[in-house]
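Closing statement on the iron/sulfur cluster sub-project.
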Amino acid sequence: MNKEMLLKVKKYLENEGIINITNEVTEMDLRKQGKVYSREEHLRGLIYSLMSAQTVWVNIERNKPNIDKIFYEYDFDKILDTEYEYFVQKLGEIRCRSRLTNAQMKALHENISTLKRIEKDFGSIDAFVTMEPTEKVVELLTSSSSKYKIKQMGEALAREYLRNVGVDSCKPDVHMKRLLGKERLGSSYNIDATNDEVIIVMKKLSEETGLWMAQIDYILWAYCATDMGEICTANPKCSCCVLKDKCNYCK
Ligand code: SF4
């Protein structure tokens, strides 16, 4: 995967009206301009990231205002005063429930306690996510031996959470790993690229294009995802693909 290939995909998606990221002001831009994220914004970013797992994201995207209301605009105390079953039921009513929702909501109170511990130890959640390199923060949020481990959150979701609060990162999800794997664009010797391989490719493309890793991730994700580009899916539509002359799948 190189710069020219990425820009071809971006152009295709923008011409088709599927994405529009040229001139967008991202969360990373806002942080660079000095924005500090509140505890409520961190909880929102965390819940959005959890809800992105095993679901059709556009459904979550269009329901964000409803989700914000269900979670009391992310008021810690109001959420702590509410039984987890309420959130499961309300998310079901707006058809934003996945098979993970029950476990995610069950862990919500404990996760808020962890965020409070982070505030106590680091001064604020925002200080915590910016004081160490991203890799270290991801490890602290996901390692089972860490006292800051967020339940129901693995590496990909931790990176998504960080991106939601303006810390540049990418989410090595199933689409990205398959697209970059040896049977398709060949950035890996594995059928699915590993997390580290995806991150290396994103970093390189970010340096070459000046785009944030999160934007590159979004472009490639949108090329694959349901209700978005839907080009490089499990059953790829290679005849419509702008990368077919570079792809191992068509050789
Ligand atoms: S040619 Fe087919 S398999 Fe290769 S990137 Fe395009 S859609 Fe995916």
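Residues 184-185, 231-232, 236-238, 241, 243-244, 247, 249-250 surround iron/sulfur cluster (CB under 6 Å). With this model delivered, the sub-project is considered complete and its resources will be redirected to Aim 3.
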